[in-house]
Amino acid sequence: MYLPQLSIKNTGKLFEVKTVYCIGKNYADHINEMKIDGIDNNIPAEPVVFLKPSSSIDVPGNIVKIPVLNGELISNDLQNEVELVIIIGKDGNDIPEGNAYDYILGYAVGIDFTLRDIQTNLKKQGKPWAIAKGFRSSSPVSEIALKVNIPNPDNLQIKLSVNGILKQNGNTSQMIFKIPYLIYYLSSVFGLHAGDIIFTGTPAGVCTLKTGDTINAFINNVGELNVTIG
Ligand code: MG
Predict the structure, then answer these.
(1) Ligand 1 midpoint to CA 26 (Å)
(2) pLDDT digits over 99-157, tens only?
(3) What's the gap in Å between 202 CA and the centre of ligand 1?
(4) What CATH number does the domain containing 24 carry?
(5) Which domain holds residue 42?
(6) 57, 144 Cβ separation under 8 angstroms
């Protein structure tokens, strides 16, 4: 079975990615900016969870592309979502919040690229919006920083620039559901395994991208990620 790989900073080791979990609506300012589509944009009572294929982390040449069907781009609205990614290093079910950090290997910077027009349209129809989030190259992830280097993952500056202009600028302290609860929740529902990764949601500042845009994503202490829109 093919599993995509991430490198672990300063170790020469590789990490094989199994399941990619994503949390939606985890920053209040992003929920607010999404209210314009008028669909279900309240603060959630429990985490909003979706999955992407692990193959979506493979981004050849660091170039992110909108898929083409029948000779035409399937979307006109590719958007950025910078996110802290939790890297799971140990198997566990029903992990208590108090033990959650024992299951974390490290952290990375990820971008949850989204075809917003498709997502909004499918949401309106009550249909699954997997293609809006899980398309090829939709989930670039940086090298992994081991957790020993990140003593306080709940207080990290998280930002993203497009062509050198700052668009997203938040702090992981703004997350509605915190890391221990996300691990408790996902391990209780799905079970977590070494190799799983968790995108933890994005702060405000998502915007429409165009071909040739260069994107820099950065999280304090964790690292950075550079991609181009192809
Ligand atoms: Mg997201």
Answers:
(1) 9
(2) 999 999 999 999 999 999 999 999 999 999 999 999 999 999 999 999 999 999 999 99
(3) 5
(4) 3.90.850.10
(5) 5-229
(6) no
